[in-house]
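Hey, quick one: can you model this chain's 3D structure?
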Amino acid sequence: MIISTDETAQLEELAVAARGGDSAAMDELLAQIQPRVRKICGRILLYPEDADEAAQDALLAVATKLDSFGGRSKFTTWLHTVASNSARATYRSLKRRAAEKATAEFPLQADPRTTSVIAGSRLDLLEALETIGVEHPEYVEPLVLRDVQKLDYAEISEVLDIPLGTVKSRIHAARQAIQPLLRVTG
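Sure thing. Here's the predicted structure for all 186 residues.
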């Protein structure tokens, strides 16, 4: 979803006002970003109900944690991070719940990949991100922001507050680490 310069400026102004305590600005900001947040979450969680759950969590995070937005980057760039993190957290929660349900109700079928509650999610990518995140958590967010959310390197550098060269090297290392973990279909 591409936002025009005017829309971006309007969102920036609303974010500043909302961060300053203007409840009407917060309501307007949340209303305007809702479709964008839903789309970001939908890129990671393809099952609509899962993406909706993640989007609601992301909107709540924006409403309650807007004061943590330091303004080092554009608000929309920060929003990508919040929504991506929410989608990944929702996946982990769904996976955990599916495993608990499968274990409790069907002990012989404990594989969460076969549980309909997470059907449609990009299981191979999400599992691979979880795996590389154990040893290299610093790789996950730059990779998601670049390859899933399609932010450019400069935006990632801004939102993560790390040098551009570090962003590029982390993404390169993440791609090398994740590639053997992804299932090839076709």
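One thing worth noting: Helices lie at 5-19, 23-44, 48-65, 75-105, 123-135, 137-148, 153-160, 164-178.
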